[in-house]
Amino acid sequence: MSNGKSILIDTSLCTACRGCQVACKQWNNLPGTKTKQIGTYQNPQDFSASTWKLVRFADGKNGNGKPYWYFFSDMCRHCMEPPCADTIQGFVKDGVIRDETTGAVVYTGKTKTVPFEKVRASCPYDIPRQNLKTKVMAKCTMCIDRIKNDRVPACVQSCPTGAMIFGDRSEILVMAEKRVAELKKSYPKAMALNPEDVRVIFIVTDDPQKYWKYATV
Ligand code: SF4
Ligand code: SF4
């Protein structure tokens, strides 16, 4: 494989418009989910077999009493060495495709024969979900069908602020490094999350755990 593709998600530019979340549903023909208001703007509350992209909202107070409000446009990281793929392949051949050109990690219908909880537990970012009726596992595909037709993923296409960028991995890595250096001037804790290990690279300006418990380094 070449170096493949990557997505950069700069949370400092995200306004939580949720265009990416809606675009993902629209492109992948995923049905809406019944939800209820529980005192947060985040909606729905979690991923499901029909929600593969989710803007997480987190708010609280810093040690100095100042409030923070962070947005985290969560999705599969398309890991360079995906642990979920190792787990699936331990049970069934061809349950997951690792695309040669892009590096996208894509589940197939054969995942229905694999114990779901084992796959979910093997993902460091708690991404995989299961269709309760068909038992097939589901998550972001990197919009592989769009990429193969020279289009960027639907979430990236929809982002109005430039918070999401798609491109060749080597170029995305350089962009991430430059952007972190720039942000560090104002936000000393700015960092990219696991850029060597994942294709979907988040940039945060504060302790990643304030954004989301699975926003790990
Ligand atoms: Fe698999 Fe989780 Fe990595 Fe996505 S983030 S490729 S679901 S291990
Ligand atoms: Fe944030 Fe862009 Fe998604 Fe809107 S489309 S929620 S600005 S990442």
What would your notes on this structure say?
- The protein has helices spanning 19-28, 83-89, 116-122, 144-147, 154-158, 169-184, and strands at 5-10, 54-61, 67-74, 96-98, 105-107, 129-130, 137-138, 164-168, 191-192, 200-204.
- It has 217 residues and is an alpha+beta fold.
- Strands 8-1-10-9 form a four-stranded mixed sheet. A two-stranded antiparallel ribbon has the order 2-3.
- Bound molecules: iron/sulfur cluster (2 copies).
- The average pLDDT is 96
- Written as H for each helix and E for each strand, in order along the chain, the element string is EHEEHEEHEEHHEHEE
State the helix count: 6
Number of strands: 10
Broad shape: globular
Our Rg estimate from Cα atoms comes to: 17 Å
How much of the sequence lies in strands comes to: 15-25%
Strand order of the largest sheet: 8-1-10-9
- Which ligands are bound? iron/sulfur cluster
Provide the low-confidence segments as ranges.
none
Distance between the termini: 25 Å
Determine the fraction of residues in helical runs and give it as a percent range: 10-25%
Summarize the main sheet: 4 strands, mixed
**Sheet/helix structural class:** alpha+beta
Task: Produce the secondary structure layout.
Blueprint: E1 5-10, H1 19-28, E2 54-61, E3 67-74, H2 83-89, E4 96-98, E5 105-107, H3 116-122, E6 129-130, E7 137-138, H4 144-147, H5 154-158, E8 164-168, H6 169-184, E9 191-192, E10 200-204
Parallel strand pairs: 1-10
Antiparallel strand pairs: 1-8, 2-3, 4-5, 6-7, 9-10
The structure holds iron/sulfur cluster (2 copies).
